[in-house]
Specification:
single chain; about 300 residues; alpha/beta; Rossmann fold; GMP Synthetase, Chain A, domain 3; six-stranded mixed β-sheet; three-stranded mixed β-sheet; 10 helices
């Protein structure tokens, strides 16, 4: 008799820069969510799919929870909280290295989490991430104690998403807590996001990595045109980089267009690897002052209802 199949959704929740996207990519074994040192890299509930034996899990990587109340921040918070309604298991990711240096910041980061998790009827696991950065492991003990007191219903797992230490133990625990149910996706599927969306996310990641702290907060990437038919073996992609002020355009374009060219080259290489095809990528920088107030565009970006 075959063992019963298990299927469920794990919502990944945590403060900005806790390492959610890095951990998701480690679980899946390839990049499905963009990674950057800059806060608020993840804006959508990115779905990664992992099939292992009789278990299949869909990971929802949500925007980082934070305390800002302006710009697109409320949209990001709403996106994260909405994802919780779909959870069979909740995985909280916390930056243990940050709290080992300054324990007082833990209480501030936990406030929006505690509010969201107060009445959750599903298992809650906590990944205390970045333990590889903490040289004196004894400094983790107060962090473990504080998290255990704040979330007494949760199980704690020290991990390093960057090195993979402890990640296999955490993954086994997550899979073990999935409810019984048939698999919903083919074994080789790794994301529910369409490739058009993922291509836009790759461009946005290169923006983060190239501009760093210079990148304007309200920046979006919209794939306007996708052509696979006009020339066999070549995918033509046109993407618009949206900024809210005219003064932001030269920041993205750079002197003589060199910065935009560099972003495009790096993104094209990665998109080609994802599509296993040659790609012609055309990038335009456009000013759209009100894009954060456009419901249709926000839906396309995965931020609207």
């Amino acid at each position: 008799m075959e063992a019963a199949q298990h299927f469920g959704q794990v919502v990944m929740l945590g403060p900005t820069n806790a390492g959610k996207s890095t951990l998701l990519n480690h679980f899946i074994g390839q990049k499905v969510s963009i990674v950057s040192p800059k806060p608020q890299t993840t804006r959508n509930s990115i779905s990664g799919i992992l099939t292992q034996g009789n278990a299949q899990v869909v990971f929802l990587d949500t925007p980082g929870l934070h305390r800002q109340k302006r710009g697109i921040a409320p949209l990001l918070m709403r996106s994260a909280y909405t994802a919780l309604t779909q959870a069979n298991v909740v995985l909280v990711i916390l930056d243990a290295a940050q709290y080992a240096r300054r324990l007082s910041s833990l209480e501030l980061d936990l406030r929006p989490l505690l509010k969201a998790l107060r009445d959750m009827p599903v298992p809650i696991l906590v990944a205390l991430n970045k333990i590889d950065v903490v040289k004196e492991k004894a400094r983790l003990l107060p962090v473990l104690a504080a998290v255990s007191e704040a979330l007494p219903q949760a199980e704690l797992f020290p991990v390093s998403a960057r090195t993979g230490k402890g990640a296999d133990v955490l993954l086994a625990a997550l899979l073990d807590r999935l409810p019984e149910g048939p698999h919903q996706f083919d074994e080789d599927e790794v994301s529910t996001a369409p490739v058009r969306f993922l291509a836009g996310e790759i461009v946005r990641e290169k923006l983060f990595m190239t501009l760093g702290e210079e990148l304007p907060y309200s920046t979006a990437v919209v794939v306007e045109n996708w052509d696979e038919t006009s020339k066999p073996g070549l995918v033509k992609i046109q993407a618009d980089i949206l900024v809210t002020r005219e003064s932001h355009k030269p920041m993205v374009i750079g002197k003589g267009g060199e910065r935009l060219k560099d972003i495009g080259q790096k993104a094209r290489i990665e998109i080609e690897a994802m599509l296993e095809s040659k790609v012609f990528l055309e990038l335009w920088v456009k000013v759209r002052r009100d894009w954060t107030d456009d419901p249709a565009l926000l839906r396309d970006l995965g931020l609207g209802q």
